[in-house]
Amino acid sequence: MTDFDKAELSADAWDEQTFPRPQESDFDRVVERAISRRGVLGGILAFGSGAAAMAAELLIAPPLRAEGLAAGFPFDPIPTQTDAQVHVPKGYVWDVVARWGDPLFSDAVGYDIAEGGPLQKSDRVFGENTDGMETFRIDGRQVVAINHEYVNRKTNLPAAQKGKPADAWDQRKLQNLQGVTVMEIAEQETGWAVAVDSRFNRRIHHNTPMLLVGPAAGHDLLKTDADPGGSRSLGTFGNCGSGKTPWGTYLTCEENFNGYFGASGEMQADLAPGYERYGISPDGWGYEYHTWDARFDVTQTPNEPHRAGWIVEIDPADPDSTPVKHTGLGRFKHENAEVVLAPDGRVVVFMGDDERGEFLYRFVSNATYASGEPTDGLLDEGTLYVARFDDDQTGEWLALTPETTGLTQAEICIYSRMAASLVGATTMDRPEWIATNPNAVEAYCCLTNNKYRGLRMNAGGGAMAVGGPNPRAHNRYGQIVRWRPHGKDYAADTFDWDLYVMAGNPTLYDDAYGGSANINAGNLFNSPDGMAFDSRGLVWIQTDGKDSNTGDYAGMGNNQMLAGDPVTGEIIRFMTGPKGCEVTGLSWSADRRTMFVGIQHPGGSWPDGAGLPRSSLIAIKREDNGLVG
Ligand code: FEO
Ligand code: CA
Ligand code: CA
């Protein structure tokens, strides 16, 4: 496989090719536990959507009518699309706020259609491939913090190089266009636009100084020659989903960090199990950073990969602040971070690890949060847990401690995946975003898909048996699992769970692959990924799936955003993205009259129609300027 070929692979496809997973040995178990569509509907869809179609005795909890949720949806659903545009319902309009390469500062050099933007000042423009985002109201200004997950190397570097850096400056340009943008935006007559030169504007990229704090800070596995104390690192990587703390800071989540590292020679043997579990390979993912910078060469800097894979806290109000990597929140391929408070004020963070057969995590702080009180240590001192889902629709959070794992506290943080494998956590169908309902004590997690469910092991050799919240072998459509903590306490160790929806294609299948009862020909989608609740209690679901619109995916069209009623289970389509894109990242303006959505890796030449496609942040409003969330 050439580097050019690697540039075409998704992160998970690359990991699979590099580290092929063992096949599931107990095929009988797969067959035995395969669940018919009828069985799934009767036994698993219990809280909401299935409720209407189910016998009352199957209900685990009564449906809750969300306080303040308007009856029905405030828009008419739209059909699927396969074109190169964004579509929204009648009565709504959309506009581009910022595109890859747009200057954040007046001294930045503008976008270059031939080369995707020059190196000069590439750390002072809006980065590429937007992902998670959160909005903040600071000093009366509207500030957005938004991730730039990765770069398309072929379009950022001169086409003749086919996406392979030719020198350290090419590498630096790629590094500059990833990470995070913090920027002020303002609404004008012509729509929302970047407030160029705002004092809040800031780019955080692959060389920005960071602090490492929490239980693993200072551990030998985090030390390098450049940082013998193991407490200061450079850069944040694979910035996927996001989170927001009650104290007004931004959380950016490092997901596919592994592909940035490579090896010029031998890899340290004692670190091999960790490298393998996290997908660190000699070749890297084609970024070639290790060719130009010893920091990314694990032969020379073996511990550098341990300094990525964390959740990073950024203060959007202070552009001079140093981002903080919180090791207490564990190291894995972090999707997003959903932060809620337990009734007693402890901080609870729900986190998914997006890889086939990896796990769902929770952190519970030791101390409690109170508005205006110091927040130091709230994301550092506490307990990390991992979820076990039982077939009887209950589950338990399993504490990862020295007693339960035999590992030290620092090792639990650095090798969270291995710790989780030791306590019997449930292997999941790629946990993506987690969101909590503002009107009920319940959390939702998108399990995007898992084509090897029932067929192979996970990266740690754990079975990916069919069952529980992962009920379909060769799961190509995905589902959303939901749990309600016992005692209405997010810090409780036990919960009930159900499936809010199983995506599928009922026009093709009448078994489990047809999806759950709330899937119909009018709302087909696959691979739920981004997710957030609005203030009214509607759950918004974004997709990152196959958009071929053929075969198993016939009738699903381009990637899209849908809205769901958590009580009735009804789901309808709100938006479709341009062909080739993923719809990811969602937040609202302070006045709730604008919804901000990210369009990542569009195809064609969207939105300019002038050569290269440019990932963008868009704003969606009602024509009557009414509330949109
Ligand atoms: Fe970056 Fe799992 O999505
Ligand atoms: Ca995602
Ligand atoms: Ca995804």
Automatic annotation (TrEMBL):
Q: Where is this region: Disordered?
A: 1-21
InterPro entries reported for this sequence: PhoX, TAT_signal
- State the PROSITE patterns in the record: TAT
Coiled-coil blocks: none
Task: Locate the transmembrane regions by residue number.
Answer: none
Task: Show the PANTHER family listed in the entry.
Answer: DUF839 DOMAIN-CONTAINING PROTEIN (PTHR35399:SF2), SLR8030 PROTEIN (PTHR35399)
> What is the protein name given in its UniProt record?
PhoX family phosphatase
Species this chain originates from:
Antarcticimicrobium sediminis
